[in-house]
Design brief:
262 residues; mainly alpha; single chain; Collagenase (Catalytic Domain); three-stranded mixed β-sheet; 9 helices
Amino acid sequence: MKRIIAILLISVLMFACKTVPFTGRKQLSLISNQTVLTLSLQQYNDFIHSAQLSNDANAKAMVTRVGQRLAAAVSTYYRSNGKSAELKNFSWEFNLVNSTQVNAFCMPGGKIVVYTGILQYTQTEDGLAVVLGHEIAHALAQHANERLSQQVAVQLGGIGLDVALSNKSQETRNLGAAVFGLGAQVGVLLPFSRKHELEADRIGLILMAMAGYNPQTAPAFWQRMAANGTKTPEFFSTHPSDANRIKQLQSCMPEALRYYKK
């Protein structure tokens, strides 16, 4: 049985990989894109029906304008690289929601929501492009799919551990499961989430540069966010530390500036 579990895990890793656009990183993909899209669209529709949409015409127009420029840059990039088919399930929408939350997100498929609370930190269209470029990058890189796939793989690993301890006492098996759960969370899931955040930062810089927004405004935006946020030790955080994030943004700047035209 242990051998069967091992073979299953090896097969998963060998045959369920995709490549992230822009970065070329290999990622685990056990869940079909259609499944992820169906689930996310339902969540998005439920959210929009219950959300309080903003009536601020100028702010709404800015969100739409920046979003459309970024979406156009995405389409141009994918078309020029012969990958337009990868965007067939994207149907872009841009919404501004009244909320004090400092947040924004892009669902798989291109459904974008910006909370009014973040506008005090974006301040300009370039600042908003930092946020939307980052969130669109998560969708293009299929990070939601990868996160779900990681959780499935972790569950398979937990099954394998339980089989390996099957001849031990129940107390030993419970302890093993607890240690595995903590190790998986801190050693696998959280670091991968930080990796996703930093990857989205890099891709987002490229996207905003392609759309004609100045990527050099990104570090200042994150510094404004850092001044507002509470500090969580990076080891137990799903997001990179502010210092690490800004450091990577600076290291990625030469790459992004190659795409930048005012």
